Amino acid sequence: MSPSYLSDYAPLLIHILAAMIVAGALLSLSVLVGYRRPSREKSEAYECGIHPTGDAREPFSVKFYLVAILFILFDVEAIFLYPWAYVFRDLNPGKSLAGFYEMLLYIVILLAGYIYLWRKGALDWNR
Amino acid sequence: MNGLFAQNAYLLISLLKVAVVVLVLLTGIAYLTWFERKVVAHMQSRWGPERVGPYGLMQPLADGVKFLFKEDPTPAGADRFVYFLAPFLSLSLALCTIALIPFGPGEISIFGRSTSLSIAEINISLLIVFAFTSLSVYGVALAGWASNSKYPLLGSLRSSAQMLSYELGLTMSVVGIVLLSGTFSLRTIVLAQQGTVLGVLPRWNVFSPIMPQVIGFLCFFIAALAETNRVPFDLPEAETELVAGFHTEYASFKFAMFFMAEYAAMVTVSAVASVLFFGGWLSPFPENPAFHFTYYLPAALAAVGGVLLIVNGLRYRSKVGRVVVPVLGLILLLLAATCALPGVNPVIQGPFWLLSKIFFFLFVYVWIRGTLPRFRYDQLMAFGWKVLLPVSLANVVVTSLLILLREKR
Fold first, then answer.
1. pLDDT higher for B287 or B138?
2. Mean pLDDT, chain B, whole residue set
3. Taking CB atoms and an 8 Å cutoff, what residues of chain B touch A66?
4. What is the mean pLDDT of residues B303-309?
5. Considering CB atoms only, which of B10, B150, B165 is closest to A7?
6. Rounded distance, CA B109 to CA B114, Å?
7. A68, A88, A95 member nearest B408 (Cβ)
8. Nearest-CA distance from A117 to chain B in Å?
9. Which residue ranges make up each domain of chain A?
10. In chain A, is it the N or the C terminus that has fewer CB atoms within a 10 Å radius of its CB?
């Protein structure tokens, strides 16, 4: 890792710092100059104008977990596709189609899982 | 002092570029809200902002000041640290992506040192763009959780699930571009799109002779609409069901920060779409002397705009407007003159075309908002998983096959 390679990232770091400073400044400025007269009613959670009933942090639908799990599955697939796409021309030297068939096999295996999920109804939100 | 400058010139110039880009982006976001309100209003036969300044031009400033001075109650039982962290994360992440966009081909010289027209030149800039866009889900999820209120929690759950689902389509649709250009660097991706197809069309990735990435672009744009929570995918903010979604409990400038983050994300997504699919800074006209007159297009546009502003401004109904609007027109005329200078003219070509493309996409965003109704939640999830994902995957397979068939013979 040469120093010039690392110095490519220095401007990005400066930009991230600048963005954080802008966001932090706006956040603290509104806290500093904002009007403030707290009361018990004001700090209640909004529930269409009536007093909130029960705790907000209740159990919620398990489908959201399912979406998260499926996302991880298919996002890993996307992560594998990126380096493959990057070296695609080197994977198929001359007339060979080896790189293409390998990825096709991988996609077909994943597609089998995808069809299974579809048939099981994991992709239907209404079930 | 001189030695110190020489040693840190690289960092100082970067700092200068960062300052310029962040300031322009923030102003752009502010006026994007004005632009959206105006355009949607005219689509619905209304006038939109009219009262604050001529043509309502001071409206974004007035809104900003009002947001700053508003009371900001924190809901009882809220997780205070996370409650403050969420808008901070949203805005700072949304402002970051623009650092990786290349604005032009050449180099400009500042203080006698030449530097490229982008903040960070990184060989994996595409991956970093995706890293930033996928982190944006944290702002939404944390905001809903920290508020300790039912509507925000439901809104943020929906929103996170939606953003996760459409992120798949977003990442998959770009694999075709990586296949075509064989690189992760946004600058090289743009450079690979030079030339023409059939002598007329620019050789942008949407018109690529190997495999036109039209389907890839459509998938990308739809997923981008969902990622930025815009109509028709604005379910997290579905007023009729969830009050205001994940930011129901936010007031004052924290509320404004979520909006700024949304508009900043719109700008950067438009920039990424133009770079990946529409040739970034490249002009739509072929690169030959017959089309050299197009170099004066930015100057001509600015001049026409300036003259229009002066003519209309002198007849404006308020006294302030009769002064302010012609002055704005004069500034535009001055800008036109600067753009026509031989030293400046070639340098601004890249930024001009990239900004025009970004502006076009922003208009499409607003246009869609003025046209389409909102999706139902189950339709939204079904579309993401059952249409977008397989279609973008098929696009990858077909693109790779066509590359092999057309390049191996």
1. B138
2. 85
3. none
4. 89
5. B10
6. 4
7. A95
8. 11
9. 63-120
10. N
ipTM: 0.86
Q: What angle do helix axes B252-277 and A10-33 make, rounded to 10 degrees?
A: 150
- A123 and B157 within 8 Å at the Cβ level: the answer is no
pLDDT at residue A4, as a whole number:
64
Residue B361 scores a pLDDT above 50: yes
- Among B69, B120, B172, beta carbon nearest to A78: B172
Note the pLDDT of residue B350. 85
How much is the average pLDDT of A12-23? 90
CB spacing of B249 vs A19 below 8 angstroms: no
In angstroms, rounded to a whole number, what is the distance separating the alpha carbons of residues B147 and A57? 10
The per-residue pLDDT for A1 is 41
A31: its two tokens:
């806290």
CA distance A41 to chain B (A): 10
Alpha helices, DSSP H only, in B341-375?
345-371
Pick from B163, B197, B192: nearest CA to B178: B192
Confirm if B316 and B54 have CB atoms less than 8 A apart.
yes
Residue B111 CA to residue A53 CA, distance in Å, equals 64
Q: Which of A56, A21, A23, A41 is nearest to B71 (CA)?
A: A41
A80 in contact with chain B, both atoms CB, cutoff 8 A: no
pLDDT at B167 over 70: yes
Q: A119 and chain B: CB distance < 8 Å anywhere? A: no
Q: Whats the size of chain A, residue-wise?
A: 127
| Distances A11 to A41, B63, B119, B175 between C-alpha atoms, Å | 47, 32, 6, 27
CA separation for the pair B177, A81 (Å, rounded)? 12
All residues of chain A having their beta carbon less than 8 Å from the beta carbon of residue B95 are 19, 22-23
